[in-house]
Amino acid sequence: MIDRLLGYWIEIGIALLFATAGIQKLRDLRRFAEVLAAYRVLPPALARPLAGLIPCLELATAVMLVGAARAHRVTLPAMALLILYALGLGINLARGRRDLDCGCTWAKDRPIAAWMVWRNLILAALLAITWLPWSSRGLSGADLMVLAGGLTVMAILYAAIDRLLGEVMPRTLALRRLA
Amino acid sequence: MSTLGLSHAALWVVVIVQALALLAVVRQLGVLHERITPAGALMLAKGLKVGEPAPALTVEDIEGNAVTLGAARADEHATLLVFVSPTCPVCKTLLPVLRSSAAAERSWLDIVLASDGEREAQKAFIVANRLEGFRYVVSAPLGVAYQVSRLPFAALVDAQGMLRARGIVNSREHLESLFEAKRLGLASIQEYFESMTRERAA
User: Fold this and answer.
1) How far apart are CA B198 and CA B192, in angstroms?
2) pTM passes above 0.80
3) How many domains is chain A partitioned into structurally?
4) pLDDT tens digits along B143-156
5) Angle of the B172-184 helix axis to the B189-201 helix axis, nearest 10
6) Angstroms from A23 CA to nearest CA on chain B
7) Å from B74 to nearest chain A CA?
8) Cβ count within 10 A of residue B142
9) How is domain B57-201 classified at the CATH fold level?
């Protein structure tokens, strides 16, 4: 049994993630099409039409997640997308393509890395937690404050960890190798 | 609002402010890292020695003409070999920089783009990105000879055929640091740090 608050926090948090990812991709579809083709996991003829479809799927997923409290199965598309992305990253890491642009939402020219696979799997595992039965208590005003605070902190910490792992750590390691 | 509720709300504010402070520190760290790389693009541990003769190769350009790269040149021009690929998104962002550098450094430098793979894809890449002004060579052995590991990669060869600098170039700063490295006579960022350490010790 998990508390309603935890369930809402996970689902709305990940919905926000998908919404920003979808909007950022739609704003620069040409770049996303190039990134998707560069991953070389799809036939080249499919990459271009799918580049338009994926951001729409992400937005739809975000909307579904917000409404997921009543039916757990609507978190399935989100989990599927997260695991498919992890697979795409993993295949290219296994191919040894360390120079591939990850196509991450906020970062340009960031190469793919193993931690991104783990990030996606952890997010998918968080969604799996929401499949446990939810407590049926009603939400009070204080609960809403906790939810709003929790989502804000989560969004900021996500951005901080993302930058730390994606931008600061590789450069720190490169400098350490020099010393 | 009760005292408990008030303290709860205050704690949330504190946690949010702390998270913001952490984000700011991480951003500053990122900026700091960008700024402390003043000379020579990051060089990989293995590889050719800067200051020694560059591998000289005769390869074909996109039109099928033979081009000799890495050898001494009579016209006193240095050669900047830039390794790119149609499938590398970062390379595309570097192309406008290359165009402006080619114009600005024309008096002493020729920029040659190098790639390998299918000729048709290369031709489409040249047309799509308006690279007709560059000499464009297609050769896999060239990339192997210069030990290119990641794209976009650049190697600077002077008029005497000596390798002056080589490394990964992701931005205008990296590219200009290659020219700066040649001007200062430093091979790479590693050598810059070493010379700083020597200065401090002296």
Assistant:
1) 10
2) no
3) 1
4) 777 777 777 888 88
5) 50
6) 20
7) 36
8) 24
9) Glutaredoxin (3.40.30)
ipTM of the complex model: 0.79
Give the B-side interface with A, CB within 8 Å.
5, 8-9, 12, 15-16, 19-20, 22-23, 26-27, 29-30, 33-34, 36, 42, 45, 87-90, 92-93, 150-151, 170, 189-190, 193
* Tokens (6 digits) for A61: 């997923």
Which phi-psi region, left, alpha or beta, contains residue B46 (left: φ > 0; alpha: ψ -120 to 50)? beta
Q: Tell me the pLDDT of chain A averaged across its residues.
A: 88
**Which residues span the domain enclosing A67?**
4-178
DSSP state of A73: G
Residues 6 or more apart in contact with residue A167 via CB below 8 angstroms: A107, A110, B30, B33
If one counts every other C-beta atom within 10 angstroms of the C-beta of residue B10, the result is: 10
Query: Phi and psi at residue B78, in whole multiples of 5°?
Result: -85, 160
Neighbours of B200 (CB within 10 A): 7
Pair type for strands B109-115 and B135-138: parallel
pLDDT band of B187, cuts 50, 70, 90? low
**Minimal C-alpha gap between A102 and chain B (Å):** 10
Contact present, B83 and B112 (Cβ < 8 Å): no
Least CB-CB distance to A167: which of B20, B30, B45?
Answer: B30
Residues of A in contact with B23 (CB under 8 A): 156-157, 159-160, 163
d(CA B68, CA B164): 18
The mean pLDDT value for A37-55 works out to: 86
Cβ neighbours of residue A170 closer than 8 Å, sequence gap 6 or more: A113
Q: Which helix (H) or strand (E) holds A158?
A: helix A141-163
